[in-house]
Design brief:
The complex is a heterotrimer of chains A (230), B (280) and C (255). Chain B is α/β, with parallel strands linked by helices. Chain B has 11 helices and 13 strands. The longest helix of chain B has 20 residues. In chain B, 45% of the residues are buried. Chain C is of the alpha/beta class and 255 residues long. Chain C contains 9 helices and 10 strands. Chain C has a 6-stranded mixed beta sheet, with helices on both faces. In chain C, helix 3 crosses helix 4 and helix 5 packs parallel to helix 6. Classes of the chains: A mainly alpha (230), B alpha/beta (280), C alpha/beta (255). Chains in contact: A-B, A-C. Chains A and B meet through helix 2, helix 4 and helix 8 of A and strand 2, helix 3, helix 6 and helix 7 of B.
Chain lengths: 230, 280, 255
Amino acid sequence: METSSGLMIIWESWPMFLSGTITAVQLCILFLGVGVVVAVPVSLSQIYGGKSLKFSASVFEQVFRGLPALVLLFLFYFGLAELDVSPLVAATLAMGLRSAAYQSQIFRGAILSIDSGQMVAARSIGMSRIRAIKCVILPQAIRLAIPPWSNEFANMIKDTSYVFVVGIIELMRQGRYVVAGSFGNALLVYSVIALIYLFLTYCGLFLMGRLSKKLAIPGFASAGAAMERI
Amino acid sequence: MFKRILVALFAVVCFAGSAIAGQKVIVGTSADWPFFEWVDKKGNIVGFDMDVMRMIAHLKGWDLTIKDIPYDSLMPSLKAGKIDVIAAQTNITPERAKQVDFSDPYWTADLAILVRNDSKRHMANIFTDNLKIGAQIGTTQANFLENAAKDGAEIEFKGYESNDLILMDVKAGRTDAFIGDTPVAKVFAETWPVKMIGILVPDNADCGFMVQKGDPDKLLADINSGVKELRSLGIWEVLTNAYAGGDLKNITNCYAGARGLMEKGDLKGYAKNLETCMTK
Amino acid sequence: MEPLLKVENIEKTYDGKKVLNGISFEMEKGNTKVIIGPSGTGKSTLLRCVNRLSEPEMGKVILDGQVVLDKTVEKEPRIDLNAIRSQVGMVFQNFNLFTHLSVLGNVTLGLTQVKGMKRKDAVERAMIEIDRVGLADKKDAYPALLSGGQQQRVSIARALAMDPKVILFDEPTSALDPELIGEVLQVMIKLAKEGMTMLCVTHEIGFARSVADEIIFLDEGKVLAHEPPEQLFSNNSSARIRTFLKKISELYGGE
């Protein structure tokens, strides 16, 4: 296959690449979003919870960190067949909860690295524990968590390529279509896809770096640490 | 104004009504198997199997949805009731028949063997010397190779998730031969630096469409009689010619040009139009 | 008249060791009391037992007529600890300023979040206290950029803003460089003179001598002496106290 005709195929297939890219970004945001919403209570339970709460949070974390993404996807899609879950719901549960398990460890690490005196001081002026977590612990933890969280983002944008196993048409699958339809430009097509993933990762990390800088507090945490990664 | 809304509402109700009238059927396929099922440049799932399904839907009044699912996930999806039919050029085997119900055979798969252009191998010495031979996992060809290896043939079977990966390995010399269906292999022989050295026809190479065990939605009768009808109307042959004899790279334009006829219900017109366009 | 703060028979065990063994004392409103004693004798723990940041096994604490702690009865009455803690200021050895908030943010947080004040009123109130500790020009600075002495003054302002009935000082100058101790002590002396009720754990003998109404000498979990400074620093104290005071004077300069 001539390179020039290969490039033609890439050019003609741009709507497929675009739609795959948009899907990848949407999935990434969705999974990470579910991850954050679940991870914060899980990490708080692991640190401040009672015995049973601590235990359940740990079991959740261990299970979802211990299983491969593909296994989780199959479990949720076929395992919940009785409930007739859609591929998107199954993928969101599998990938979102998996991300939550990883993110919970990021938040846990961040919270634990905050000096215990912060909590004591907050309690000493009469704040309830929940209010202290909300007003004192979390604002600091979030800033500390941004650099490791960027890492989770970089993993997630790539991991969206797993979800085709339950039939969601994302970037990798669109690439397969282009390859199958163009009869043999695999290397070129996958190179384009590689560039798209690189570009998405770069953009994401750039935005995280900006956020980190925006939230930076003089003398606190490592401002712009996320930026240094790229 | 109010009248207009009423008319619009009425139209919507009628449209919804007509949509409800057909039996909802979800067909699953793995759209990376050109000739039978793949995706054109506009993102449409096209191919022989797909045309057959669309035509049966017309004949039997199905409300059809086609879903692309990886080949490995098709059977679990059918068993879990996520889809109603698998149309993915699948070999009828006793193991599969235990889990799903097959339609009457509609295609006989064969084994076309491809090697790199500069290879000295031929049919007599291809299954010797522990050569590495690749096929797409879950296909007739893969099953054949797996069984042959188990039965003591001097080959090393390499299963792949998709055809382009096998062909890349053959091109790079990491795999010695590719085995696929003849029509598919013909296309590859034209577009990749590979050549066809021969064709084998194994026993039990019949392919069928699949439905859930016990056929709970009563679809088998529709499929079987639908295929018969297409054959007797002469549409089947034209359709086979279009794909087997045509240049699959024309599919995007040809499908775009012909699909209107299909949507109008002119199945024969569609097949003829497609054939002319593909073989041009 | 009822004392403002009444602490009775506090007992507290840490790792099987009794660090507090039946401590009792009372404070009148406007009093300044200093707790001294060798390290590891439970001085800080005693402070934390007063607002129950540390939980003693035995004892009773009454603040301005409200029960803070009562282990003498089988079942304690319902106690709104958060409400009580908001009436007890606390100043820590390590300042413990909220690192993500500016000086103003540190002082207003309790006002808006605990006292439910409107932001505008809270700022107004906070500025009075920030001004009182002499840091009005630093109101927008973040803790990490302040000197230790400045940070400790902010933490005093944070405690003051809550209008506390009593402020607990837990070795407020121990983490400071010598040249920064003075500015914090000055603020504390000023507060004492203005009539704030203060309970201080400190090694600053000079401060104790000049400001304290009474000094509690704690040793091995027990009150060894509880008397006005003149008396404690006179010669009729026990040998144990005299040795300690001598050592402390050498270490911290004393007077």
